[in-house]
Fold this sequence. Notes:
By secondary structure, the chain is of the alpha+beta class. The protein contains 28 helices and 23 strands.
Amino acid sequence: MRFERWLYTVPLRLRSLFRRNRVEDELDEELRYHLERQIEENIAIGMTKDEARYAALRTFVGLEQRKEECRDMRRVRFIEDIWQDLHYGVRILRKNPGFTAVATLTLALGIGANTAIFSVVDAVLFRPLPFEASDRLLMVAMANPQLGESRLPFSVADFLDWQEQNQVFDDLAAFTDNWLSLTGNAEPERVRGAYVTAGFFTTLRAQALMGRTFAAGDDAPGRDSLVVLSHQLWQRRFNSDPQVVGQAVTLSGRSRTIIGVMQDSFQFPPDDKTSLPGKVDLWVPHTLNPPARRGPYYLWGIARLRPGTTPENAQAELESIGLRIRDANPLTNAATTFVAVSLKDAMVGDVRRVLLVLLGAVAFVLLIASTNVANLSLARAAARQREIAIRTALGARRARITRQLLTESLLLAGLGAALGFALAFWLTHLLTTLGPGSLPRLAEVKIDYRVFGYTGAVTVLSGMLFGMAPAWHGSRTNLNESLKEGSRNTAESRGWQRTRSLLVIGELALSLVLLVGAGLMLNSLLRLQRVSPGFEPLNILTMEINLPSVRYKEEHQINGFYHELLERAGSLPGVQSAGIGMSLPPNLLSISDSFTIEGAPATPGTTAPAVPLVVVSSGYFSALGVPLIAGRNFDETDSADKPQVAIINETLARRYFPSVNPLGRRIKVGGPERPTNPWMEIVGIVGDVAYGGLEAAPEATFYQNYLQLPWSSNYLVVRSPSDPRPLTAAIRNTIWTLDKDLPVAGVKTMEQLLAESIAQPRFRTFIFVVFGALALALSLTGVYGVMSYLVTQRTREIGIRMALGAERRDVLKLVIRQGVSLAFLGILIGLPMAFGMTRLMIGLLFAVTATDPVTYSIIALILIVVAVLACWIPAHRAVRVNPVEALRYE
């Protein structure tokens, strides 16, 4: 019955809501019909017309009451009341434009910042990857617990063993990358190419926009002269040619046929999972020939779980395969095993903590903004006590008063959300523009229905947060006091003052937490920028050169090109020194390899230590400004037909030759599994260079001469006595005189490279500092608002004090002491909060502890100074009070 009644009444109520006038007319017509019918029945039984009408009206006593009951049954009374509340709330906000503007702007800052940061967090952390059933995709790598490495590339031999013994994956593939030179219909261009096995696109379930992707067998020898273009390269280089499929292109001197163009949304592998930065321009098949040894280690794996198989099952199988490889290869794999993580976690990496901390920080900004608006609303509600008292005296219930005040707060929050949402579009664009390139999935950031829903939830929450205090106080009005002619005491009641003071204390405590976080980040960044990279970065120009293996097959061709280039570049006007190196600081490390010390046998159950190996020319150290500590540099006599030599850095000398002079000792590349590798005499020791980044500890590193170990891909390093950028054109022309088809890429100064290496710490520090500054400004206005209001309420008291002989400094002390006491209470509450919250930032700090006492002391002092400044203007206004005027103040 209840359900049937609901089915009957709901349509009536909805119709009454949207067609009110028509329904009212129908109701009047229906009642008139019943009245006339009753009159006719009375006449039929013998009454006169007047008697019949009088009797009918007596029957319908309470007709208006019945009409109201019918209206209540048919009409949505609650919704009408809400509409009235909204209408009245709009009138109130329009009558107070100053309050409305300040509160709206304050909320817009908090809501807009939250929306912008959430759009980034949502794109990076919450949205599924743009692949079919992406939750079944895993990234597979190697781990070496002995070295504390949880994710390392594996070798061709490792991949082939994994592929042969796989039982839990539907598809699997391996990939790596390399720079390639694209030549042909335009200027030579260096592009980032991903070398992938044939199952790469099948594993990701990726479809081509045009043509096809790689099929089984496309990575076999003799069948691998194929290429798939990225959408961006197709547009940029080939002008979106619809007939591009089937055309031939020359990549690093080798002709390849274009078989497909990928969708615009497809971008894989990510930047930070391979050795090269930037987006992938094209994909080529990678032929995996059975290797003669386990190394080198340069491949990463991608795999798709079979239905019904869990990641735990996959990890267990990979560990079993790793154990079997370890048993079969104790010299190379004694301490390594396979590991698998979800592809999403692998792509996000350490960014997860950064983004969650930023989301927490921006939530604090919204809390502070809401607290500020709550204080403003309390001041306004105090001034409306008489109005609320009159409404209560006329019959308004407490619940209705509370609902009215909350409705006004939600209206205000809605205005803030509208402005904040517009602000969020600009902030989101700014974040994606300023965000470091290493931030994954940055191109997927957008404001959509998910972000819109989040903004709506934040709006309602903020409206309730800053609306509860004034609504609670406003509904507890004392009628007798409020309706008195002199109702000043009500506005000055201790309850109102106490609530406003508590809100300011809470605001200062939240600001302290946010400011401490910003201070720690800023301190960390400043220390990171002061880290010595191990060389002199001023006036250095760098560029990347990649010799195509098709044209430079022989070692003497590679050495001949670089020897001639160094001769010509070094003789250019304005060049002090020039050199080449396969790696470049601060974080462009190409490879690491193991080494063995002569006379130091390996410990059973361990592998040879793996450290960075850098192949350089003799001018590399002088061009970078790396100091020579002992011994000599490489020279032209260290040719391929002479005994091989090596140079080591200070860390390697200190760690592996702690008690002997390493000069004259011999090392070789590889461990016991490579007994035929030649020994190299250590001829020099140089300073440590930060190849692993400024945040990393110095690594043991050894160097070989490019004449004895030719390497096709190198960085050219040129030092000048002044700004080296004008040398770019001359050096590029010098390279093109040697090889007109050779692309020159990555032309940057060393200062640019250093700045890029700390882009992510600098970005998150910038965001934190902005949030901290915003919190400080809001706190300043909050303290000022409270103190200004309190001084206004105490004008009469101040006048009496001054009339009785109080000095101006006494009044100043009185006002400032009250503001500083609020600041001290906020600091006392905020300090333990900051101690707890900043522990989440431990992994984001460099050379700074989360409980750094200097940072905490400085931030506490800043808050006290801000409180004094916020109190100064009201206090200065208080001392200028005329006692005669103050005594008349009401």
